[in-house]
């Protein structure tokens, strides 16, 4: 279960993507055909973006070992959103 800080950062990411011109934004999207479950994912006519939210160093390190980080994955743009000073 996601922490309150994680949920708050997901909301920040959603607002930022909407302001950046992505009209369709969702959180915790289950993508069939992919084991990836993006924290925040957004779409516009010519591209997509994924924001991975990490709230601890252990979470950030574990995320870097996922196969999707080495060989592509969802999203044309891939971003991290973390608390100040985490990375």
Overview of this protein structure:
This protein has 87 residues and is an alpha+beta fold. It has three helices and four strands; from the N terminus they run H-E-E-E-H-H-E. The chain has helices at residues 4-19, 57-64, 67-70, and strands at residues 24-27, 40-44, 47-53, 77-81. A four-stranded mixed beta sheet has the order 1-2-3-4, covered by helices on one side. The mean pLDDT is 88.
Beta percentage is 15-25%
The ordered string of helix (H) and strand (E) elements is: HEEEHHE
Please compute the radius of gyration using only Cα atoms: 13 Å
Distance between the termini: 23 Å
How are the strands of the largest sheet arranged? 1-2-3-4
Oligomer: single chain
Question: How many helices in DSSP terms?
Answer: 3
Q: What would the principal axes of the Cα set say about the shape?
A: globular
Low-confidence stretches: none
Q: Give the beta-strand count.
A: 4
